[in-house]
Amino acid sequence: MTLIKSISGIRGTIGGNVGDNLTPIDAVKFASAYGTWLKQQRTKDNYRVVVGRDARISGEMIQNLVMNTLVGLGIHVIDLGLSTTPTVEVAVPMEHADGGIILTASHNPKQWNALKLLNHKGEFLNGAEGQKILDIAEGANITFAEVDDLGEITKNDAYFDLHIEEILNLDLVDADAIRKANFKVVVDGVNSTGGLAIPMLLNELGVETVKLYCEPNGQFPHNPEPLKEHLGDICKLVVEEHADFGVVVDPDVDRLAFIDETGEMFGEEYTLVAVADYILGKQKGNTVSNMSSSRALRDVTEKHGGSYQASAVGEVNVVQLMKDTDAVIGGEGNGGIIYPELHYGRDSLVGVALFLTHLAEKKMKVSELRATYPSYFMSKNKIQLTPELDVDAILEAVEAHYKDEEVTTIDGVKIDFAENWVHLRKSNTEPIIRVYTEAKSQEEADQLAKDMMTVVESIAKK
């Protein structure tokens, strides 16, 4: 069992020992540290925090612990209940709140949960802010409110509707064109909150919806990471239903993947590519994705006369580089769409709306749209870590081994070869090294990954 404390929040498995897992005591400890940090940012009479959760089995327990801890600090809580990460992000500024917390472990299996922490803009905390909260948690210098100064909890279940309303008001979302296209779409909500939010959005856009695993009971019917090997059921159902395509989201609805009308993956990496192609066709500008994302975004951006930049992995890093370069669209190759006109956060709902508009204008099948983009193939692998492994030393040795190639070390080690690339980095959310490769064929990408993992294994044995 595992507890991972990082600048992006606290994530762990439910049950077990305090300090080794995400126990009730750990949830209270870090919620206290966050609330204390938040009150240090500015002096005021009333503090407000928006709190929502995905549909994990442990979600209600963890949310109640977190909310009542904030109440004990004298902070008022806006309780969104079952929600999505982007919905909470949208709600924070709309509520003029001081921050937000989402209880979700994203794509991790059901035994995991996490506290994802937001600032007053509804954006993830930066490294310095996250470290300050970790320091407060370890120092235990936390003062709770007197009885007359306790906070209050106010429930608000309107934010799915408000989030969708904000999306429909965007200039580049053409609801009329979508309605006229008479789309039929299958939705896999992995029995979490995407099973509520995505069908609501599609209904507002006049899209016929077939629901698959849309009951928000937290019993994930397959591995919740939206990868091809986990999505056999929706691939089959799209064909059986003669649907135009399928939509797959992860439990907190910040990752988005499509299935084409033939039941084949559109390609998780190509979610951002397609949406960027649409945006850049309307508005010239720059794009950003992280270092583990496909070169296809660079190609599409340059086709439209824009400039592409790659950030370190992590949403906060992508967002900062987007701001620095005035990017009009960005995100992560794992299916995360960040559209600044709405907010600076990965958002599957706005991704669906923009993709539908693009498809309605193109008047082509999803498989035909995919064929218009450069073809790259990725291989995503993991090396399980053990306590005795010195990961930093291994990555330094890999860097030295490939010193004659184009190497970038702002986030792990990325080696850019002429026709392909490989990126190794220690995960912030799991005890693993991620090994991502990309090439012009799947066989080449897989072989590159296998070769790199062999190199790492030989270095680890020395």
TrEMBL record:
Coiled coil: none annotated. SUPFAM superfamilies: Phosphoglucomutase, C-terminal domain, Phosphoglucomutase, first 3 domains. One of its GO terms (molecular function) is phosphoglucosamine mutase activity. Its cofactor is Mg(2+). The keyword ATP-binding does not apply. InterPro entries: A-D-PHexomutase_a/b/a-I, A-D-PHexomutase_a/b/a-I/II/III, A-D-PHexomutase_a/b/a-II, A-D-PHexomutase_a/b/a-III, A-D-PHexomutase_C, A-D-PHexomutase_C_sf, A-D-PHexomutase_CS, Alpha-D-phosphohexomutase_SF. One of its GO terms (biological process) is carbohydrate metabolic process. It comes from the Bacteria. PROSITE patterns: PGM_PMM. GO terms for cellular component: cytosol. Residues 8-138, 172-263, 270-374 form the Alpha-D-phosphohexomutase alpha/beta/alpha domain. Keywords: Isomerase, Magnesium, Metal-binding, Phosphoprotein. Residues 395-453 form the Alpha-D-phosphohexomutase C-terminal domain. Gene3D superfamilies: Alpha-D-Glucose-1,6-Bisphosphate, subunit A, domain 3, Alpha-D-phosphohexomutase, C-terminal domain. Belongs to the phosphohexose mutase family. This is Putative phosphoglucomutase/phosphomannomutase family protein. It comes from Croceibacter atlanticus (strain ATCC BAA-628 / JCM 21780 / CIP 108009 / IAM 15332 / KCTC 12090 / HTCC2559). The lineage of its organism: Bacteria, Pseudomonadati, Bacteroidota, Flavobacteriia, Flavobacteriales.
